[in-house]
Fold this protein.
Amino acid sequence: MTAQELIRTARLRARFIRWPGRLGKTGTACAVVLAVAVLAAVTGPWLAPDNPTLPDLQLAWVGPAAGHLLGFDFEGRDVLSRLLAGAQSSMLGPLVVVALAMAGGAALALTAAWRRGAVDAVISSGMDVLFAFPGILLAVLATTVFGAGLTAAAVALSVAYLPYVARVLRAGALRERNQPYVQALEVQGASVPRICLGHILPNMSRMIVAQATVLFGYAMVDLAAISFLGLGVQPPAANWGVMISENEPGILQGYPLPALSAAVCVVVVVIAVNVLGERLLEREVTR
Amino acid sequence: MRFLARRLAMLAGSLLVASFVIFGALYLAPGSALAALSGGRALPASSVAILDQRYHLNDPFLEQYGYWLDGVLHGNLGISITLRENVSTLIGNRIWTTAGLVLYASLIICVLGIALGVLAGLRPGWLDMSTLVTTAVTAAIPSFVAAIVLIGVFAVRLGWFPALSSGTGGGFLSDLRAFTLPAVALALSSLAIVARVTRAAIREEAEREHVQTAISRGIPMRQVVQRHILRNAAIPITTVSAITVASLIAVSAVVETAFSMNGLGAYLVQAAQSKDLAVVQGISLVLVTAFVVVNLLADLLYAVLDPRVKLGARAA
């Protein structure tokens, strides 16, 4: 690594690390919302005041009471406890989807951009075929084959998101590939994995973070929809999508709070992620 | 013309691969086809032989795929194991519910979403700010959440619309009424996204030099908007509208389930739960085809809007 490069990467890192400070009021609010959601996902099961899966039919649809801020659901379980316990699978699911899609997408994008020519053509047309499968459809197919559950749904969604991720990252990787610093590294005899993983990938980190943030919102909505269809997380496990689905009859019967509180959790997290993602993408474009 | 031919060839190619993926994936599904056909009963060897022959159960995978594909091309998608009926008939009975729902929702998205975006883009101020905030919230509302809220408010509380719609068949006006809540639920978040992208595209074009020049030369505002702003902003607007309309095809499954509608998507979910593989294959194929065709139409529309696309360059 030359001195110039050291300075360049150090500067990039510094800019990258500083971004939370420049999000503005709305952005900071969104970051706080996300931090709370992550905290709930990590500590939720321990924070839950009541047992989130133990039914007590005598308390079914009972409204808010002292010590039970959001009342009870259709089986008489404390809604707040279930929300806290459900944060884990509701946040972890999209995280897995995003991680898999970004890792796969980045690997394909880097390979396509590095090798170009035939390899690029094969990867791109493979992505075009995959593009024909909407996420929810692929998830339904996967759950038919492997049985309903979060794992099959999450893996299927990450595969469905691959073409979108790979397309954007490929463009970014091609741009980096043509930068003089890559040629310089090649001339110096640096190995291909080292150039790709140690230099190109870090330089694309802002783009990757922006894409991942946007994708998280989509993944959350799609996974919740799959759970709503009964093909994702299986009850009685706590999950926000499951809670909306199982408490849906309450809406018709005049007890909307259990379903709505879970819906509000999903919507608030997705708003926060979308607003943050939009900010990050804008910055990526204007860079 | 060459552009069209190339895109049609690509369409056929990706549909072929997609059909192979759909068939292959479900071929791998656990459970024997014979047990599903017999309903789990033990059958005499002669019946097993007949079934084996009738459904080509002992042939190699590729030959089975060939038989299936041949059937598909002749409109024969196999037989539903749970309902004992032709999958093509079952799909034919339900396809208009889904098509009507998706078309209705697309209409709402394209008309309201684009109008809202154009208005907000051209008039900075309170309208713009409130559009930005409202769309940021509605873009995050999943369709099934919208569905249950709409049912709760407009069907149960106010009684303006039926809560559960059984599908088409009650005359146009009653269909329209039955489809309104589902279509709004399906359209809501996409409408917000289309409005936001439209607004951004209009704003960006309005700040471009050629527009500023046109304004400073005294060209009437109406003409500037029509000829210089809208025409150029049309490409990103078409892109986002096409993507969101295509995505409705899959999401319709969720809305149909929420409203207990008798559509393809809801049937797909039921079939997936009861492992009715022929139905899952058939509906998946129909949905994938619809998705690909909508995307093709969008590509053709770009070629009309932006002549550079025809020459081989991709729309940005």
